[in-house]
Amino acid sequence: MRAKYLAVLLVLLAVFLAGCSGQQGKTATTPTPTPEKTPTPIPTPDIEKIKQEAAEEAIGEAMVLAINTHFDDPNTDEIEGVNVNPEFGCQGCHFGKEAVPRMIEWGKSAHGGHLLEVKEKDLSAAITEEIAPAWAHYDFKQKDRQPCQNCHTSTGFRNFASNPENYNPANNTFLLVGKQKELLYCWACHKVEDRSFQLRNPGKFEKIASYSEPAERIAAVPDLGAANLCMVCHSGRSSGAAIKAAGNIKTHFGAFNSHYLAAGGVIFKLLPYEFDGREYADYNPHESINDLCVACHMPKGSHEFKALKKEGDSIVITAYEETCKKCHGDEEELKATIEEREAQYKATLDYIQQLLANKGIYYDISAYPYFYPSPNPQDGRGPPNAFKDWPDKNTLGAAYNLNLFAHEPGAFVHNPKYVKQVLYDTIDFLDDGELNDSVLNNAPEKVKAFLEGAR
């Protein structure tokens, strides 16, 4: 074992001596140091230049957007952009420090024809009748559309809201050419002409109502302040009471059409056809909300006018914190309730449509005047082909309620109890021709759930 270790030591010694002998006779030299590399200098960014370029790019994009949203081709039926009123110029809409964010909101609203939503997808696109029928369906500035001008043009709305007692559509002067059309511009609601920019105020509803019955309820609508403006166009044009007063009902439904999105007429129980012998709820919790209409549809001054928004598969209650929370403590529960009731509401209207069809009266929401003796569009649509042979006023009233609520998708929120009662009675009459509380006998489950507690 020792011999083994000795052999290893000898080998190591030999290697060491060989190394030393190899260095003999050589002059030691100092190694040349490797020169240090000079680091490449990092340029200092020109912040001001970057800001300038970004600003120029933003201005360029803004100019492109402005050009494409401020011109309406007079040769097309569509609306390519805003028609600037030369009476006001830019200040017709560009006033106040909040003008830009408000106009962006407006451009995404129905009042603005969803203009910005259209342009965000394609700058060359235009507002069509399918996107915004309230503005693009007709050329509302034409003489044959004068009765529509106070709601379907900015010029007519401004003149009506400024002086409803003396309003005459024949005096509406449109600063447009060709087929150009107006949306509901800022100067329609705001007093731009005197530079106060305050809201116009047409006064209480009884001063602006386009129907005279039910007279007591019309007179009872309080002064709503800013919401008086909303009532001009969102209260309907004909009430169910007009059917009861009519001498002749053998005509197409256009003679009794309530018009569209008539939330104010539902909130204050002005529009629905009520069946004789029935009592209806006097109390509507939403009627007493301060700043009615504005509180829910313009939270924090928003000009999108949306009380609810869809985000994916769920909804957002835009006014929850400012308004709804005062009575509805659980936001998620309220959302779930709204979604459930909405589905039940639609099912209830579908069931009414089915009951009318059982009587040979077919509803087509896409074809004015909406009710026809045939379910097939190829058999003809429009007034000449419409259903006219109404057997009685209650049947006509039931059809009226269907059309009113089909065009007022938020009615089940605007006046919950009352709307349930009206729809309950509508079904109760249609299912067997009598008001005998037979509703729950054959109604689908969703309908039964919606009408629970109505009577």
Q: Could you describe the 3D structure shown?
A:
By secondary structure, the chain is an all-alpha fold. It folds into two domains: 61-189, no CATH class; 206-282 and 330-451, no CATH class. It has 20 helices and four strands. The strands form two sheets. It has a two-stranded antiparallel sheet. Helix 15 (331-357) packs parallel to helix 18 (416-432), helix 15 (331-357) packs across helix 20 and helix 16 crosses helix 18. The protein starts with a helix and ends with a helix. Residues 24-45 are annotated as: Disordered. One of its GO terms (molecular function) is nitrite reductase (cytochrome, ammonia-forming) activity. This is Polyheme membrane-associated cytochrome c. Residues 32-44 have a biased composition (Pro residues).
Q: Number of folding domains?
A: 2
Structural class: mainly alpha
Which regions contain 5 or more consecutive residues with pLDDT less than 50? 1-28
- Gap from first CA to last CA: 112 Å
Note the overall shape.
Answer: globular
- The spatial strand order of the largest sheet comes to 1-2
Strand content: under 5%
Radius of gyration: 36 Å
Helix and strand succession? HHHHHHHHHHHHHHEEHEEHHHHH
The tally of beta strands, per DSSP, is 4
**Helix percentage:** 40-55%
Number of helices: 20
- Main sheet summary: 2 strands, antiparallel
**Mean pLDDT metric:** 90
What's this entry about, in short?
The protein is mainly alpha-helical. 41% of the residues lie in helices and 3% in strands.
